[in-house]
Amino acid sequence: MSSISTAPRLSTGLDLRGALARAWAANWPLTLVGLAMVPTLLIALIGLAIDPRLITGAPAWMKPAKFAISIAIYSFTFIWMLGFVRGPRLRRMAGVAASLTAVAFMVEMVVIVLQVVRGTTSHFNVSTPLNAALFSTMGIFIMLLWVMGLLLAVALVAQRMADRPMALALRSGIVITLVGAGLGFLMTTTTAAQQASVAAGGAMTVSGAHAVGAPDDAPGLPIVGWSTQGGDIRVSHFVGLHAMQVLPFIGWLVGRRRRLGVGRQTALVGVAGAGYLGLVLLLAWQALRAQPLLAPDALTLGVGAALVVAVAAGAAAAMAGGRRA
Fold this sequence. Notes:
This protein is mostly helical. About 65% of the residues lie in helices and about 0% in strands. It folds into 2 domains: about 20-160, Four Helix Bundle (Hemerythrin (Met), subunit A) (Up-down Bundle), CATH 1.20.120; about 215-325, no CATH class.
Protein backbone atom coordinates (compact mmCIF):
# COMPACT_ATOMS: atom_id res chain seq x y z
CA MET A 1 0.00 0.00 0.00
CA SER A 2 1.24 3.46 -0.85
CA SER A 3 2.54 5.59 1.98
CA ILE A 4 0.54 8.57 3.21
CA SER A 5 1.72 11.71 1.48
CA THR A 6 2.11 15.03 3.22
CA ALA A 7 1.75 18.26 1.27
CA PRO A 8 4.84 20.19 0.19
CA ARG A 9 4.75 23.55 1.89
CA LEU A 10 3.98 26.62 -0.18
CA SER A 11 7.00 28.86 0.28
CA THR A 12 6.37 32.53 0.90
CA GLY A 13 10.03 33.45 0.48
CA LEU A 14 12.04 34.21 -2.62
CA ASP A 15 14.32 31.18 -2.52
CA LEU A 16 14.20 30.79 -6.28
CA ARG A 17 17.53 28.97 -6.47
CA GLY A 18 16.42 26.44 -3.85
CA ALA A 19 13.08 25.94 -5.58
CA LEU A 20 14.78 25.30 -8.92
CA ALA A 21 17.22 22.89 -7.27
CA ARG A 22 14.32 20.93 -5.81
CA ALA A 23 12.52 20.97 -9.15
CA TRP A 24 15.66 19.73 -10.91
CA ALA A 25 16.02 16.91 -8.39
CA ALA A 26 12.37 15.97 -8.86
CA ASN A 27 12.56 15.80 -12.67
CA TRP A 28 15.35 17.52 -14.56
CA PRO A 29 13.93 17.09 -18.12
CA LEU A 30 10.70 18.91 -17.32
CA THR A 31 12.54 21.53 -15.27
CA LEU A 32 14.87 22.12 -18.22
CA VAL A 33 11.89 22.59 -20.54
CA GLY A 34 10.29 25.02 -18.11
CA LEU A 35 13.50 27.03 -17.90
CA ALA A 36 13.96 26.92 -21.69
CA MET A 37 10.65 28.72 -22.07
CA VAL A 38 12.18 31.88 -20.55
CA PRO A 39 14.59 32.60 -23.45
CA THR A 40 11.92 31.32 -25.85
CA LEU A 41 9.53 33.95 -24.50
CA LEU A 42 12.21 36.64 -24.79
CA ILE A 43 12.84 35.71 -28.44
CA ALA A 44 9.11 35.79 -29.12
CA LEU A 45 8.78 39.21 -27.49
CA ILE A 46 11.63 40.53 -29.64
CA GLY A 47 9.86 39.04 -32.64
CA LEU A 48 6.66 40.83 -31.68
CA ALA A 49 8.60 44.09 -31.52
CA ILE A 50 10.50 43.88 -34.82
CA ASP A 51 8.57 41.44 -37.05
CA PRO A 52 5.49 43.05 -38.67
CA ARG A 53 4.15 39.84 -40.22
CA LEU A 54 0.64 38.59 -39.46
CA ILE A 55 -0.40 34.92 -39.48
CA THR A 56 -4.19 34.31 -39.52
CA GLY A 57 -4.68 37.92 -38.54
CA ALA A 58 -2.44 37.83 -35.44
CA PRO A 59 1.18 38.97 -34.96
CA ALA A 60 3.43 36.13 -36.09
CA TRP A 61 5.25 35.72 -32.79
CA MET A 62 2.17 35.91 -30.56
CA LYS A 63 1.60 32.14 -30.59
CA PRO A 64 5.18 31.23 -29.51
CA ALA A 65 4.93 33.82 -26.72
CA LYS A 66 1.65 32.44 -25.41
CA PHE A 67 2.77 28.84 -25.65
CA ALA A 68 6.06 29.59 -23.89
CA ILE A 69 4.15 31.02 -20.92
CA SER A 70 1.65 28.18 -20.91
CA ILE A 71 4.30 25.45 -21.16
CA ALA A 72 6.38 26.98 -18.35
CA ILE A 73 3.37 27.18 -16.03
CA TYR A 74 2.24 23.64 -16.83
CA SER A 75 5.74 22.22 -16.45
CA PHE A 76 6.42 23.67 -13.01
CA THR A 77 2.90 22.84 -11.80
CA PHE A 78 3.44 19.24 -12.91
CA ILE A 79 6.73 19.13 -11.01
CA TRP A 80 5.10 20.61 -7.90
CA MET A 81 2.40 17.93 -8.06
CA LEU A 82 5.11 15.26 -8.19
CA GLY A 83 5.93 16.24 -4.61
CA PHE A 84 2.65 14.72 -3.44
CA VAL A 85 3.48 11.32 -4.93
CA ARG A 86 5.61 9.36 -2.44
CA GLY A 87 5.05 5.66 -3.12
CA PRO A 88 8.08 4.22 -5.00
CA ARG A 89 6.13 2.67 -7.85
CA LEU A 90 3.78 5.61 -8.18
CA ARG A 91 6.76 7.97 -8.06
CA ARG A 92 8.48 6.13 -10.90
CA MET A 93 5.33 6.20 -13.01
CA ALA A 94 4.81 9.91 -12.40
CA GLY A 95 8.50 10.58 -13.13
CA VAL A 96 8.27 8.84 -16.49
CA ALA A 97 5.13 10.85 -17.24
CA ALA A 98 6.99 14.07 -16.42
CA SER A 99 9.96 13.19 -18.64
CA LEU A 100 7.76 12.27 -21.62
CA THR A 101 5.77 15.46 -21.05
CA ALA A 102 9.04 17.36 -21.44
CA VAL A 103 9.76 15.63 -24.75
CA ALA A 104 6.27 16.36 -26.06
CA PHE A 105 6.48 20.04 -25.10
CA MET A 106 9.83 20.46 -26.83
CA VAL A 107 8.52 18.91 -30.04
CA GLU A 108 5.43 21.12 -29.95
CA MET A 109 7.42 24.31 -29.39
CA VAL A 110 9.99 23.48 -32.07
CA VAL A 111 7.21 22.98 -34.63
CA ILE A 112 5.45 26.22 -33.61
CA VAL A 113 8.63 28.29 -33.88
CA LEU A 114 9.69 26.60 -37.13
CA GLN A 115 6.37 27.43 -38.75
CA VAL A 116 6.53 31.04 -37.59
CA VAL A 117 10.00 31.34 -39.13
CA ARG A 118 8.57 29.86 -42.35
CA GLY A 119 5.73 32.40 -42.21
CA THR A 120 2.87 29.95 -41.94
CA THR A 121 0.56 28.35 -39.39
CA SER A 122 1.41 25.32 -37.27
CA HIS A 123 -2.06 24.18 -36.24
CA PHE A 124 -4.56 22.75 -38.77
CA ASN A 125 -2.13 23.37 -41.66
CA VAL A 126 -2.28 20.56 -44.24
CA SER A 127 -1.57 22.73 -47.29
CA THR A 128 1.64 20.82 -48.23
CA PRO A 129 3.04 17.39 -47.34
CA LEU A 130 5.57 19.06 -45.00
CA ASN A 131 2.95 21.17 -43.25
CA ALA A 132 0.64 18.19 -42.91
CA ALA A 133 3.47 16.07 -41.49
CA LEU A 134 4.37 18.75 -38.94
CA PHE A 135 0.74 19.14 -37.89
CA SER A 136 0.36 15.36 -37.55
CA THR A 137 3.54 15.20 -35.50
CA MET A 138 2.16 17.84 -33.16
CA GLY A 139 -1.07 15.87 -32.88
CA ILE A 140 0.77 12.71 -31.87
CA PHE A 141 2.75 14.45 -29.16
CA ILE A 142 -0.29 16.37 -27.90
CA MET A 143 -2.00 13.02 -27.45
CA LEU A 144 1.10 11.85 -25.58
CA LEU A 145 0.79 14.91 -23.32
CA TRP A 146 -2.78 13.98 -22.49
CA VAL A 147 -1.87 10.39 -21.67
CA MET A 148 1.00 11.54 -19.44
CA GLY A 149 -1.39 13.87 -17.63
CA LEU A 150 -3.66 10.88 -17.12
CA LEU A 151 -0.78 8.95 -15.56
CA LEU A 152 -0.19 11.81 -13.13
CA ALA A 153 -3.90 11.77 -12.29
CA VAL A 154 -3.75 8.01 -11.63
CA ALA A 155 -0.73 8.49 -9.36
CA LEU A 156 -2.47 11.25 -7.38
CA VAL A 157 -5.65 9.22 -7.00
CA ALA A 158 -3.75 6.11 -5.91
CA GLN A 159 -1.52 8.00 -3.47
CA ARG A 160 -2.87 8.14 0.08
CA MET A 161 -2.73 11.67 1.45
CA ALA A 162 -3.24 12.87 5.01
CA ASP A 163 -4.51 16.27 3.87
CA ARG A 164 -7.97 15.41 2.54
CA PRO A 165 -8.96 18.86 1.22
CA MET A 166 -5.70 19.27 -0.69
CA ALA A 167 -5.91 15.69 -1.95
CA LEU A 168 -9.33 16.40 -3.43
CA ALA A 169 -8.12 19.72 -4.87
CA LEU A 170 -5.15 18.06 -6.59
CA ARG A 171 -7.17 15.18 -7.97
CA SER A 172 -10.08 17.26 -9.21
CA GLY A 173 -7.66 19.85 -10.62
CA ILE A 174 -5.74 17.39 -12.78
CA VAL A 175 -8.91 15.58 -13.89
CA ILE A 176 -10.57 18.84 -15.00
CA THR A 177 -7.32 19.81 -16.71
CA LEU A 178 -7.58 16.57 -18.69
CA VAL A 179 -11.16 17.50 -19.63
CA GLY A 180 -10.00 20.92 -20.78
CA ALA A 181 -7.14 19.41 -22.75
CA GLY A 182 -9.52 16.92 -24.33
CA LEU A 183 -11.74 19.76 -25.53
CA GLY A 184 -8.81 20.85 -27.67
CA PHE A 185 -9.33 17.80 -29.85
CA LEU A 186 -12.68 19.28 -30.94
CA MET A 187 -10.67 21.91 -32.81
CA THR A 188 -9.14 19.30 -35.11
CA THR A 189 -12.52 18.36 -36.62
CA THR A 190 -12.96 19.69 -40.13
CA THR A 191 -15.54 22.45 -40.32
CA ALA A 192 -18.63 22.44 -42.54
CA ALA A 193 -17.04 25.10 -44.75
CA GLN A 194 -13.88 23.01 -45.19
CA GLN A 195 -15.93 19.92 -46.04
CA ALA A 196 -18.01 21.91 -48.52
CA SER A 197 -14.86 23.24 -50.18
CA VAL A 198 -13.48 19.74 -50.66
CA ALA A 199 -16.85 18.48 -51.93
CA ALA A 200 -16.79 21.27 -54.51
CA GLY A 201 -13.44 20.07 -55.79
CA GLY A 202 -11.16 22.31 -53.77
CA ALA A 203 -7.99 21.17 -52.02
CA MET A 204 -7.90 20.61 -48.30
CA THR A 205 -5.41 23.18 -47.01
CA VAL A 206 -6.78 23.63 -43.49
CA SER A 207 -8.27 20.89 -41.33
CA GLY A 208 -9.91 22.16 -38.16
CA ALA A 209 -10.36 25.55 -36.54
CA HIS A 210 -10.40 27.38 -33.23
CA ALA A 211 -13.56 29.31 -33.98
CA VAL A 212 -17.10 28.05 -34.57
CA GLY A 213 -19.33 30.01 -36.92
CA ALA A 214 -16.56 32.41 -37.95
CA PRO A 215 -13.19 32.13 -39.72
CA ASP A 216 -10.08 31.88 -37.56
CA ASP A 217 -8.71 35.14 -38.97
CA ALA A 218 -11.83 37.11 -37.93
CA PRO A 219 -11.41 39.80 -35.24
CA GLY A 220 -10.67 38.52 -31.75
CA LEU A 221 -10.04 39.71 -28.22
CA PRO A 222 -6.65 41.37 -27.58
CA ILE A 223 -3.69 39.07 -26.87
CA VAL A 224 -5.70 35.84 -26.46
CA GLY A 225 -7.28 36.22 -29.90
CA TRP A 226 -10.57 34.56 -28.92
CA SER A 227 -13.13 35.19 -31.63
CA THR A 228 -15.55 38.08 -31.22
CA GLN A 229 -17.51 36.99 -34.30
CA GLY A 230 -18.32 33.39 -33.31
CA GLY A 231 -17.72 30.77 -30.68
CA ASP A 232 -14.16 29.84 -29.74
CA ILE A 233 -13.25 26.47 -28.24
CA ARG A 234 -9.98 27.92 -26.93
CA VAL A 235 -11.91 29.61 -24.11
CA SER A 236 -13.04 26.37 -22.44
CA HIS A 237 -9.72 24.76 -23.37
CA PHE A 238 -7.81 27.53 -21.58
CA VAL A 239 -10.01 27.59 -18.48
CA GLY A 240 -9.93 23.80 -18.21
CA LEU A 241 -6.15 23.58 -18.53
CA HIS A 242 -5.65 25.92 -15.59
CA ALA A 243 -7.76 23.88 -13.18
CA MET A 244 -4.52 22.25 -12.02
CA GLN A 245 -3.42 25.64 -10.65
CA VAL A 246 -6.76 27.11 -9.57
CA LEU A 247 -8.17 24.22 -7.56
CA PRO A 248 -5.00 23.46 -5.55
CA PHE A 249 -4.85 27.19 -4.75
CA ILE A 250 -8.46 27.00 -3.53
CA GLY A 251 -7.54 23.91 -1.54
CA TRP A 252 -4.65 25.80 0.07
CA LEU A 253 -6.87 28.78 0.91
CA VAL A 254 -9.60 26.58 2.41
CA GLY A 255 -6.99 24.57 4.31
CA ARG A 256 -5.81 27.73 6.07
CA ARG A 257 -9.25 28.12 7.68
CA ARG A 258 -8.70 25.37 10.20
CA ARG A 259 -11.67 26.34 12.32
CA LEU A 260 -13.92 24.93 9.58
CA GLY A 261 -12.74 21.39 10.25
CA VAL A 262 -11.61 18.82 7.70
CA GLY A 263 -15.17 17.84 6.75
CA ARG A 264 -16.23 21.34 5.79
CA GLN A 265 -12.93 22.06 4.08
CA THR A 266 -13.21 18.94 1.94
CA ALA A 267 -16.84 19.62 1.08
CA LEU A 268 -16.03 23.19 0.01
CA VAL A 269 -13.23 21.99 -2.23
CA GLY A 270 -15.62 19.47 -3.77
CA VAL A 271 -18.16 22.22 -4.48
CA ALA A 272 -15.42 24.37 -6.04
CA GLY A 273 -14.32 21.49 -8.25
CA ALA A 274 -17.87 20.74 -9.40
CA GLY A 275 -18.49 24.42 -10.10
CA TYR A 276 -15.24 24.75 -12.03
CA LEU A 277 -16.07 21.71 -14.16
CA GLY A 278 -19.51 23.16 -14.79
CA LEU A 279 -17.91 26.42 -15.97
CA VAL A 280 -15.61 24.58 -18.38
CA LEU A 281 -18.51 22.64 -19.87
CA LEU A 282 -20.67 25.76 -20.07
CA LEU A 283 -17.96 27.63 -22.00
CA ALA A 284 -17.53 24.69 -24.37
CA TRP A 285 -21.30 24.51 -24.94
CA GLN A 286 -21.45 28.24 -25.61
CA ALA A 287 -18.61 28.03 -28.14
CA LEU A 288 -20.08 25.05 -29.98
CA ARG A 289 -23.28 27.08 -30.40
CA ALA A 290 -21.19 29.72 -32.23
CA GLN A 291 -21.57 32.38 -29.53
CA PRO A 292 -18.69 34.74 -28.76
CA LEU A 293 -17.53 34.70 -25.15
CA LEU A 294 -18.73 38.27 -24.54
CA ALA A 295 -22.05 37.88 -26.41
CA PRO A 296 -23.92 35.00 -24.74
CA ASP A 297 -27.61 34.55 -25.50
CA ALA A 298 -30.37 34.38 -22.90
CA LEU A 299 -30.16 30.60 -22.63
CA THR A 300 -26.42 30.68 -21.93
CA LEU A 301 -26.91 33.42 -19.35
CA GLY A 302 -29.70 31.42 -17.74
CA VAL A 303 -27.61 28.28 -17.47
CA GLY A 304 -24.71 30.34 -16.14
CA ALA A 305 -26.95 31.88 -13.49
CA ALA A 306 -28.21 28.41 -12.52
CA LEU A 307 -24.60 27.26 -12.15
CA VAL A 308 -23.82 30.20 -9.85
CA VAL A 309 -26.89 29.43 -7.73
CA ALA A 310 -26.00 25.75 -7.57
CA VAL A 311 -22.44 26.50 -6.45
CA ALA A 312 -23.69 28.97 -3.83
CA ALA A 313 -26.20 26.43 -2.54
CA GLY A 314 -23.54 23.74 -2.51
CA ALA A 315 -21.17 25.96 -0.54
CA ALA A 316 -23.93 26.76 1.96
CA ALA A 317 -24.73 23.07 2.34
CA ALA A 318 -21.04 22.28 2.76
CA MET A 319 -20.74 24.82 5.54
CA ALA A 320 -23.86 23.47 7.24
CA GLY A 321 -23.23 19.77 6.89
CA GLY A 322 -19.56 19.39 6.01
CA ARG A 323 -18.65 18.37 9.55
CA ARG A 324 -20.97 15.35 9.32
CA ALA A 325 -19.55 14.52 5.84
